[in-house]
Amino acid sequence: MRIIVLGMLWTCLISNPVILFAQTGNESEIEQIRAELAAMRADYESRIEMLEKRLDEAEKETATSQQAVESIASRQAEQAVQPVATGMPSAGSNDNAFNPALGVIFQGQVWAYDNDPDDYMIPGFPLGGEAGPLPEGLALGETEINISANVDDKFTAWLTAPIAIEDGEAGIEIEEAWIETMALPAGLTLRMGRHFANIGYLNEKHAHTWDFADQPLPYQAFLGGQYLDDGVGLRWLAPTDLYLEFSGEVNRGANYPAGGAGRSGFGSYALHARSGGDIGFSHSWMAGFSYLQADADDRASGSEDEPLIFNGESDLMMAEFVWKWAPNGNIRQRNFKFVAEYLWRNEDGLYSLPDGRLQPYDTDQQGWYLQAVYQPFPRWRMGLRWDQLSSDNPGEAFDGTPLMPLADDPRRYSIMADWSNSEFSRLRLQYTLDQAGLEDDKQWGLQYIFSIGAHGAHAF
Amino acid sequence: MNKIMKSIIVTGFFLLSPMLATADLKVFACEPEWAALAEEIGGKAITASSATNALQDPHYIQARPSLISRVRKADIVICSGAQLEIGWLPMLLNKGSNPRVMPGNSGHFVASDYVKRLDVPATVDRSQGDVHPQGNPHVQTNPHNILLIAKALAARMAELDAAKADDYQKGLENFSLRWRDAITGWEARAASLRGKRVITHHKSWVYLENWLGMEEVANLEPISGVPPTAGHLSSLLKRFGEDGADIIIHAPFQSEKASKWLSKRTGIPEIMLPLTVGGSDQAKDLFSWMDDILDRLLGALQP
Description:
CATH topology of the largest domain in chain A: Porin
Shape of chain B: globular
Strand order of the largest sheet of chain A: 1-3-4-6-7-8-9-10-11-12-13-14-15-16-17-18
Shape of chain A: globular
Order of helices and strands of chain B: HEHEHEHEHHEHEHEHEH
Number of strands of chain B: 8
Helix content of chain B: 40-55%
CATH architecture of the largest domain in chain A: Beta Barrel
Distance between the termini of chain A: 38 Å
Distance between the termini of chain B: 81 Å
CATH class of the largest domain in chain A: Mainly Beta
Radius of gyration of chain A: 27 Å
Strand content of chain B: 5-15%
Structural class of chain A: alpha+beta
Strand content of chain A: 35-45%
CATH architecture of the largest domain in chain B: 3-Layer(aba) Sandwich
Number of strands of chain A: 18
Helix content of chain A: 10-25%
Structural class of chain B: alpha/beta
CATH superfamily of the largest domain in chain A: Porin
Largest interface: A-B, 74 and 70 residues
Order of helices and strands of chain A: HHHEEEEEEEHEEHEEEEEEEEE
CATH superfamily of the largest domain in chain B: Nitrogenase molybdenum iron protein domain
Oligomer: heterodimer
Number of domains of chain A: 2
């Protein structure tokens, strides 16, 4: 209530910028406005108190009348066809009843490395976006606020706003903010706004639902961790018994592997086809192919001090496969999950190297990962992951630059174990043997993930 | 590029046109009891299938691709509600791209809206476990609830499929008649169960207990949704060690280890009860399911 009124007050103020700005510089008038504001605030606060009191009383009344209704309903039970819902009070207007679902994810971690993670690089694969090792030592992870609700009968809205800490400063970001249709015919759904692109298996998954603390190498190298952008996407679910979904989207192209919002702000597009089904009660699977075409316009990657600037096109093909098993499909007791993805990328364009040279670049690279997670009994899970990259030689011109891969393919081996007291809490221990960087690195991480508020529903 | 943008805008508006209704009634039930009930009412006029089977914990289901495809084609989605399916149904509805079955439309039927829900908490806090703010969702275990829901469901099916409204009405009358008879029989048989003290794995049976006058004295889960722990079990052992309860109940999808552990040490008999149709070999439809619940309870309590 209070928040809403203060919000309205705020809206009034910002919607009258003329008043505020026209008078800047005039000290006495500023003072006067301040005094008026204080008076208004005091006035509103007393009104809010009064309203809250009235709301309390109204709620009590509704509760008692609701009880009466219920006891009558149970007596005349068999005559009732109308819902005898025990939910919201029916009388009075209560704006809070329309508050969206609100959830907050808390994440934190501690990581130990043999090598300095600030110097981390994978030769041949200059990292962009959010890719790279997690901070060394104790650190807060992303604190994520999720807000969602139906707008009306035709649209639904979702907001993910992480409070991220970068260089010691906390800032609120918009990770996802999209509107989706609910009433299109023929199995169509349109999404617009900022979102994780609908490609691959992991790209759309929020960090708190990952099975490992970090993204596998191909996602780090080819998608900057996760490809996030502003755009519009349409998906179509075929009316078949077998699950068949096709989607296409056009994005702004602002983030890695795109960059600079090229092509007048239509810098990337993506296609995705997916299928899936069950085998008996115990097995289910999903497989898909996706394609991302991104225009890179002065895209920076690699070290922050001496970034490599790329102009050109990045084409990425992805094949995904997921298989899940649980005895009789009862995942509560025991379950197993296997995920494999193969990514193939071609980048064609011009690199500006740190030494000032402008060099044509046209190179194919591949990456894949296999991961398996097993829950032997409730609350405990353990998992193994193998992720690897491979690159063609970009040519002699790139000798001695971060774009020249080493002879051995970059790879990592990870093992994790996690424990969940309830659906809303998880503690995870992860060990990674990293043979992707310049030197082998043994990495230990301990992570927590907690969620409060609305109970989220997770995708397959 | 302007062309692309224009075509996006034009298609977007075109697609917002209202949708057309379809002919025959396809029922997507979240749990087997609602598929069985829809079949009792609709008979051969409908095709019903359940998203879950009786050996699965309906709280913990994955939004599998096969389920998304089934939601896509459904004319009506029937679920227990009260947040039982909150971890997966919203995802199925979102991915299923089927406006007919979205909440608020007549193709979205929430069974527990039509009965008096028990255990509605005055306040909710997750320190109490995964509590359901709208009350206990396992409403199917009181057969009086089934009658109420049947009546509302038949009306809803008639609304969706007006051409067969009479068939649904006849189906409802036929079912209600037989079900009322059956209730009389069950209540006579179950008279001796009144006052029995029950320990259950999860709070899955409050409607059954409420119907038969049994008293739930404890749960094997320390708090709702958290699996039994050694500490909690030993406190139960201390509390019920000396003939403190009459029976321990678990559902087929819950691990029997905790029940057996406590039963062995306290001597309190322990049984599996099917929570829905298909939960045991005997529970083939709604009638034989309820028969089987009583058979098992009476069998365990009358030596």
